[in-house]
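Moderator note: this is an archived Q&A kept for reference. The question asked for a predicted structure of one protein chain; the sequence and the answer are reproduced below.
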Amino acid sequence: MKKLENKVAIVTGASKGIGGAIAKKLAAEGASVVVNYSSAQKDAETVVASIINDGGRAIAVQGDVSKTAAVDHLFAEAMKQYGTVDILVNNAGIYKWGPIEDVTEEGFHEQFNVNVLSILLTSKAAAKHFSEKGGSIINIGSAVSSVTPAGSAIYTATKSAVDSITGVLSKEFGPKNIRVNSVNPGMVNTEGSRAAGFIGSEMEAHIVSTTPLNRIGEPDDIALVVSFLASEESRWLTGEIMLASGGVR
């Protein structure tokens, strides 16, 4: 029996990159997966098609998870299709780098709404919809909360908030047998990091040179850790911040 057999997982921001890899891995382990996306419908449908072609179960649900109405719709569709929710992976996120001189109110709220507010809204909904058996919430943070690189003030602040929320909610939800953990990746080879110009840059070369495992991450590296935290194999873990960065600290 697969370790996530008969489980239902919602993965936010799952149309590509880390989120897409997580959705596919959870499905491969037996979970029915709700692939949430904000705007990349074709990419989300491609992830769903890949899961189904491999014998899994998945649906795609559009929604900006920084909005309460969209979160309510997301969980309603999951309940309608599968009857329950057991796992929530908060992967939706954006990043924009720049010096402090570039900080604007609009840019601040944009990143905090997607990276922080969404986690509060989806976790609130998960606590309502998880069964009496409990469940697992996995937040995708970032190694930047430990490394604090220059030019990332807003983004690093959002991911530091994710670390704090993980700890707080692990205590609030513990009595309900809901575990809350965070996976904090270092640089990962995704469409987003390529579009941002990180891959092939001096920054990548520097990160590789300071990474004990001597490479940047791949989406599957993160998906493996998330799969572990979603399963009963991690049943005694909550409130943990797991650096998945090849040793970068």
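Archived answer notes: The radius of gyration is 17 Å.
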